[in-house]
Amino acid sequence: MTQEYTATPKDWFEAARPHTWPNAFAPVIVGTGAAAALGGAHLGRAFLALIVAWALIVGVNYANDYSDGIRGTDDDRTGPTRLTGSKLARPEQVKLAAFVSFAVAGVFGLILSVEAGAVWLVLVGALCIAAAWFYTGGTKPYGYSGLGEVAVFIFFGLVAVLGTEYTQAGFVTVTGLLCAVAVGAISASVNLVNNIRDISTDQASGKHTLAVRLGDERSRRVFTILTMAPFAVSLLLSFSYLPTLFALAPLPLALASIMKVRRGAQGAELIPVLGANGKAMLAWSLITAVGLGWGWWDLNTPVPYTAV
User: Which runs of E-coded beta strand occur in 239-296?
Assistant: First the structure.
């Protein structure tokens, strides 16, 4: 009997996992803020970086859908639509969608690198694409070995924030590094809570994610630390840029996520935490970016001289 594939545009949209998109937007926003702290923000390059980051995360989501689906590790999972595992679309179509997304990231990354006068960044972009594919792709996916959160911290934290800052300002700074650590940490928390939700099914399918390796209780403790990291960074940034203290505003949203996770929420109960931490991360990045730009403007605004 011929298999019918019935994926709708809505299914394709949900499989791109829009709840993860803040992980792409936040580092570019706060990286632009770090550049603004140097007086070097460039909105055109920020837009290019935004497309690169968004295309990468859509690509990695489709790549995960494809790779997990053909391995059968998505057969019994809660959460967003799985095109391959649910047999809504041909595996080849999902794989193509991933490669098209990576191609978009590559093209706009090349344009950004040339525009910023740093063609060597193309190599960094190629590494990002390789990391996105081999997260669950290839014969030995590193996402199955507990390195997923490390990769998220590196590529959607350090690389994305510092890369954004460098392409606009021509430098990376301690301020940018602090922002990169903050975004990388809370971004990794989103990945971690997703894996906490799937501990039992991942164990059964042979996926040794960080949550599987740490166990349920310790994973929830690590989630707490990662979620609180941006707010600790806000306190540090405030010594040089006082307006960044306003970035403590999303703290109640983060605390609500922590309370839900620490109280032992399981399965589908953890799905809202993904969105809540994504919103907290995005809000923190927006407010911090504005605070850094405001702080630079305040420090560099001439004070009128009045003769006595």
Answer: none
Compute the Cα dihedral for 203, 207, 209, 213 and give only its sign. Answer: positive
- Stretches where the chain sits below pLDDT 70 are 1-3, 73-79, 295-308
Tell me the residue type at 241. Answer: Y
Task: Supply the pLDDT for residue 299.
Answer: 53
Q: What is the pTM of this model?
A: 0.90
At residue 302, the pLDDT reads 45
| Joined tokens for residue 245 | 């203290």
- Side chain identity at 47, as an amino acid letter? F
* DSSP H helical ranges for 116-207: 121-134, 148-153, 160-169, 174-197, 199-205
Give CA separation, 90 vs 12, 61, 82, 131, 307, in Å. 12, 16, 11, 24, 77
Q: SS3 of 139, please?
A: coil
Continuous segment of H or E residues that includes residue 231? helix 216-237
| Secondary structure of residue 116 in the 3-state scheme | coil
